[in-house]
Design goal:
The complex is a heterodimer of chains A (393) and B (303).
Chain A: E1 8-15, H1 26-41, E2 50-54, H2 63-69, E3 76-79, H3 85-98, E4 104-111, H4 136-150, H5 155-173, H6 187-192, E5 195-197, E6 200-201, E7 211-219, E8 231-238, H7 257-270, H8 275-278, E9 281-283, H9 289-298, H10 307-313, H11 329-333, H12 340-353, E10 369-378, E11 381-391
Parallel strand pairs in A: 2-3, 2-4, 9-10
Antiparallel strand pairs in A: 1-7, 1-8, 4-7, 5-6, 8-11, 10-11
Chain B: E1 9-12, H1 18-29, E2 33-37, H2 52-62, E3 66-70, H3 77-91, E4 96-99, H4 114-142, E5 145-150, H5 153-157, H6 163-183, E6 188-195, H7 205-213, H8 217-225, H9 228-238, E7 250-254, E8 257-260, H10 279-285
Parallel strand pairs in B: 1-2, 1-4, 2-3, 4-5, 5-6, 6-7
Antiparallel strand pairs in B: 7-8
Helix pairs in contact in B: 1-9, 3-4, 4-6
The chains are: A alpha/beta (393), B alpha/beta (303).
Chain lengths: 393, 303
């Protein structure tokens, strides 16, 4: 089997301050993120041979990065894959590197949601029948209520379990200087918050954020000439479903078959047999608290219906056995749609290098292998990308 | 002390606790002379063991206001007359009537007792009629008056297990709409409010426990955030000189928002016939017209 494992190296990454950046336009944030990546990689603008840019609603075409970064006459591709757009830039660019077409490429993901006339997630294409009345929180709430029912959680238990995820995310985000929502919240605050779509309250939903993140990729065999602690791509999985959940009356809304397959693809490439034991850090797409919970089961970290036990035991906290969303995740770090996938990789990349933003944020254990999961859609119609990054050795 | 209601005479029923108490205190704070009604004994519901009306009177007097207590039962026609007479005897007139007294006796309709139905309708609906009847006679002669009747969201939302309460509270809305048109020409306004406040009625320990079980912590938090004092401020506003054009309306009143209800309109969709109707024809035409898209708010569950 052909695998992308150890063919592509990340030699530089950057991430701007996420938030409601009223004082910054998309260009400012693209420059902040990319220049940090240039400096991190020790490359210059002229070294970039090709570019990939991801944004869902804040622009179209390669010019969106060529203009602010003054990239001169190189191929640039604009990609869009819903909320997984950020990681799609890395995925596409990785294959271009792996096939030998380029030596050094740039990935940029960004979104400028504030001052754009959008109050929430943009709708995009809406299916005239299956898409009617669909909202992201609504569909994930359906998943949550079915989950409670299927695994015997009372409404109170279920709500409290989800709340613990958000408390953890805010705790982590409060410690990251670049995160959007940098305040801890208490379990009580989360439980008492206004409901968006029961059981999902305000604190079960991710931030609506401006931000940009960037990565510089090169061939693994020449990565050493840039730095010793480059990070290798170990596996990438993408499994877009045919949206059958909306048509299949038997679909239960608690399984994420697309995510299961994407994880299998990535694990196979990376040679991972026991993800729970082998992975050291997870960055999951927690657009809603329930998404983090269901994804933990779909990627084989927790047995189906048993995630509550691990949440109660603190398995996924900063000091726990397997930290999840150590940077705060979409919940607290924020969700600039096109940037999120790269932001997740940014955290894994830094943790693997032992260079987490602020030394006290560095995980106490050795971080060799990390998984980032970026997704679009909702249960029944999902678009997940999973990228596994690992330490060079 | 404010002066917006200086020398006005106001009656608040069920003013011992909760929203009524807050309304009484707010009216007195604007200079009105108050009759604080709260029954001390009753044939049902949850009457107060202690004369709480005295406590509220004491509180108002302490703040420099004027108030007298009354312990009559609004569900008794004589009691209601006595309440109005208390105002006349003490202060010589009646300018403002706030009907707030109300009780709850929840039960699903199929097992609701006669007593549960009658007690709620008597206090919550008859009580409003009895006091309005007695007060209207006096206000008509004075050619000025303000009546505020307390409805509820129970009927508007179709709240489970409250068919008696909803019947009374929706009855109040219709009653108020008619009364407004009867009394408007004499300078009297009548309006209904559907208050939102965390009181003994809306946030009982049983309700709180049920919401906790259901994981609706947000309901509890919201209920606690909704203050009777804010409902009271709106009630005072409706009693000012400035509200002469507000007559016969229904308002949703809560700490975080105040809403004006749409008055009932003609049906928004109609089908017409020159020959009348047959069941067969209705079976054919209704699904394509009026019944198209209708959703059962409580569809059949399980087997």
């Amino acid at each position: 089997m052909w695998t992308i494992k150890d063919k592509v190296a990340i030699i530089g990454m950057g991430c701007c301050k996420f938030g409601e950046n009223w004082d910054k336009g998309a260009d400012d944030m693209i420059i902040d993120a990319t220049y940090e990546a240039y400096e991190d990689a020790g490359v210059e603008r002229k070294d970039i041979q090709a570019g990939w840019v991801g944004t869902t609603v804040s622009g179209a075409g390669g010019i969106t990065i060529a203009a602010p970064l003054k990239l001169d006459r190189i191929p640039i591709t604009h990609v869009q894959n819903f909320c997984a757009t950020g990681m799609e830039t890395l995925r596409s660019a990785s294959f271009a590197i792996a096939c030998g077409a380029y030596d050094i490429v740039l990935c940029v993901g960004y979104e400028k949601l504030k001052d754009s006339g959008l109050a929430g997630l943009p709708a995009g294409y809406i299916h005239p029948v299956l898409g009617v009345n669909v909202t992201a929180p609504g569909r994930w709430a359906m998943g949550a209520t079915r989950y409670f029912r299927a695994y015997g959680l009372s409404p109170k238990e279920g709500k409290e379990t989800l709340a613990k995820i958000s408390v953890k995310s805010h705790y982590n985000g409060a410690r990251h200087p670049k995160a959007h929502l940098r305040r801890e919240v208490t379990l009580e605050q989360v439980l008492n918050a206004p409901i968006i779509a029961w059981p999902l309250g305000l604190f079960d939903c991710c931030g609506n954020t401006d931000g940009a993140a960037a990565a510089i990729l090169t061939r693994a065999d020449i990565a050493k000439s840039f730095r010793d602690d480059h990070v290798l791509v170990k596996g990438i999985g993408l499994a877009i479903g045919p949206s059958l959940g909306k048509e299949d009356g038997a679909y239960d809304y608690i399984h994420l078959p697309e995510t299961e397959v994407a994880a299998q693809q990535a694990y196979e490439q990376a040679g991972i047999k026991n993800p729970r034991k082998e992975l050291d850090i997870l960055e999951l797409h927690d657009c809603f608290s329930i998404s983090e919970l269901m994804t933990l089961e779909a990627i084989g970290i927790c047995p189906k219906g048993k995630t509550k036990e691990d949440i109660d035991a603190g398995t996924f906290t900063l000091k726990g056995e397997l930290p999840v969303n150590a940077d705060g995740g979409l919940k607290s770090f924020g969700h600039p749609i096109g940037a999120s996938g790269l932001r997740e990789c940014y955290e894994v990349y830094k943790q693997i290098q032992g260079k987490a933003e602020l030394p006290e944020r560095q995980l106490k254990k050795e971080v060799r292998l990390g998984l980032s999961h970026n997704q679009g859609g909702h249960p029944g119609s999902l678009l997940p990308i999973i990228t596994i990054l690992g330490r060079r050795d | 002390m404010g002066t917006k209601l200086k020398d006005k005479v106001a009656i608040v029923t069920g003013a011992g606790r909760g929203i009524g108490r807050a309304e009484a205190i707010a009216l007195a704070a604007e200079g009105a002379k108050l009759v604080i009604n709260n029954r001390t004994s009753a044939k049902g519901g949850t009457p107060s063991d202690v004369p709480v009306a005295d406590e509220v009177v004491g509180e108002i007097k302490k703040a420099g206001g004027i108030a007298v207590p009354n312990y009559d039962d609004v569900s008794d026609p004589e009691g209601a007359r006595n309440i109005i007479q208390t105002a006349v005897n003490n202060f010589g007139r009646v300018d403002i009537l706030v009907n707030n007294a109300g009780i709850l006796m929840d039960a699903q309709t199929y097992k609701m007792t006669d007593e549960q139905w009658e007690n709620v309708i008597k206090v919550d609906l008859y009580g409003v009629f009895y006091t309005c009847r007695a007060a209207a006679a006096i206000m008509r002669e004075q050619r000025w008056g303000r009546i505020i009747n307390t409805s509820s969201q129970a009927g508007a939302w179709g709240r489970f297990g409250q068919s008696n309460y909803a019947a009374a509270k929706e009855g109040i809305v219709g009653f108020t709409r008619v009364l407004a048109r009867e009394l408007g020409p004499r300078g009297i306004t009548c309006n209904a409010i559907r208050p939102r406040a965390g009181t003994r009625v809306s946030l009982s320990p049983e309700t709180q426990a049920a919401w906790e079980r259901e994981g609706r912590f947000d309901f509890i938090a919201q209920s606690k955030m909704l203050k009777a004092e804010d409902v009271a401020q709106f009630a005072v506003y409706l009693c000012t000189e400035e509200t002469a054009n507000i007559n016969g309306y229904t308002f949703l009143v809560g700490t975080d928002g105040i809403g004006l209800y749409r008055e009932p309109e003609p049906p928004f969709k109609m089908i017409f016939s020159r020959q009348g109707w047959t069941v067969d024809y209705l079976l054919e035409v209704m699904p394509k017209t009026l019944a198209d898209g209708l959703v059962n708010p409580a569809p059949p569950k399980g087997a």
